[in-house]
Amino acid sequence: MASIRLNGVRKVYGDGTAHVAVDGATFEVSDGELVVLVGPSGSGKSTLLRMIAGLESITAGDLHIGARRVNDVAPRDRDIAMVFQSYALYPHMTVAENLGFALKLRKTPRPEVTRRVREAAATLGLEGILDRKPRQLSGGQRQRVALGRALVRDPEVFLFDEPLSNLDAKLRVQMRAEISALHRRLDATMVYVTHDQVEAMTLGDRIVVLHEGRIQQIDTPLNLYDHPANRFVAGFIGSPAMNFFEGEVAAGDGPEFRAAGGAFRLPLPPAWAERLRDYRGRKVVLGVRPESLHAQRGRPSDARLAEAGFVVEGVEPLGNEIFVHASAGPHRVTARVPPQPVPAPGEPVSLAFDLGRLHFFDPADDRSLAPALREAA
Questions:
Q1: Dihedral sign (CA 75, 79, 82, 87)
Q2: Which of 39, 283, 309, 361 counts the most CB atoms within 10 A of its CB?
Q3: What is the pLDDT of residue 320?
Q4: Is 70 exposed, middle or buried (0-12, 13-18, 19+ CB in 10 A)?
C-alpha cells in the first residue's frame, strides 16, 4: 500500500467567472489509513477524490501517491481502484466475470485471475453467487461485487465515492461494518467520500471536513465531535445537530451568558469566565449538544447544571431515547433525553445545561473560542 500526500491542491473550473471547487487542500493519508472526506453537496469532496484518481486535472498544487508525483499520470497508471455510487456492473456477465474483468483486460494469466476472484469472493462472502448475473442480486450483493472488483486488483489505494448512497438504511449499516472490517483485514490505504456524517464518524481513522471547497478541520472522529474548530464543523458533525444560541457575555452578579431577547441566563464556569474576559459586553454564540441538555430524569450527579425554562414544541420518542424540541423566545432547541414522561407540546419544560460541556463561537468569523481554553486546561 502507499500513502497519499496533497500540497496546496486547487481545482478551478472555467475562466472569467471561474468557480473554485477545491481551494488549497493540504493533508496526508498515511499508509494503511482510512480517511473520510465529508461535507455537504458542493463542498468539493468528490472533486478532490476524482483528482486523486486522475479523473479531474489539477489546476495547482502537488499530488503524490507513495513517492511519486502523479499530477500528470494517467488514471490507469496510478495503481488505484475506485468504487462508485453506482455499481456499474456489466449486466451480461456473471459475478465471477465481473470480478475478473479488469484483470482480463490487463492480460493477467487465467489461473491468477481465478485465484484472485476466489480470494475476493471468500473475503466478501460471494462464493455462493459467482454464477449469478447482476439482475439476480440484491443491492447489498451488488455493492459487494463492486467492492470485490476493486479488491481483486490489489491496488496501492482504494477510493470510495459515496458507495452506499443507493442502499436502504439497514443495508447501509451492514455495509459500513463490512467496509470497516475489510479495511482492518487488508490494512489498506483508503479514501472514502460521503455527505453522511454518521458514515464519516463510524468509518474514518481521521475525517477531513470540507465546506465550499475549503478544508475546515482534519481530526479524529471524537476530536471533531468534542472540539470543533468552528461553527460549521460543530453544526455538521453530530445528529441531531448542535444547538446554537445568540447572546452576549455579561458581568451581572458573576460572569454569565445572556441569550438574545432575555430568554435565559447561564452562569459561566471559571475556565470559560477567564477565556471570555475580553468578550464581556460583546456578542457570542453559545453551542450545546442535545445530550448536554437534561430533563428531570437522567441528570448526571457529577455535572454542574444550570436550568432554563422552555416551551415544548414537539416530542419524538425513539424507544431508547427521546428528542424533545422546545423554544424560548427566538431560540429553538433539541434535547436528547432518556425515556421518561415529558410535557406535551405547548407545555413548559425545564432543561438543565451541563456547564462543563458548553461551546462558544465568535459571531464575526464563526471560529471556536475553545482552543485557548483547552491549552490552559
A1: positive
A2: 39
A3: 93
A4: buried
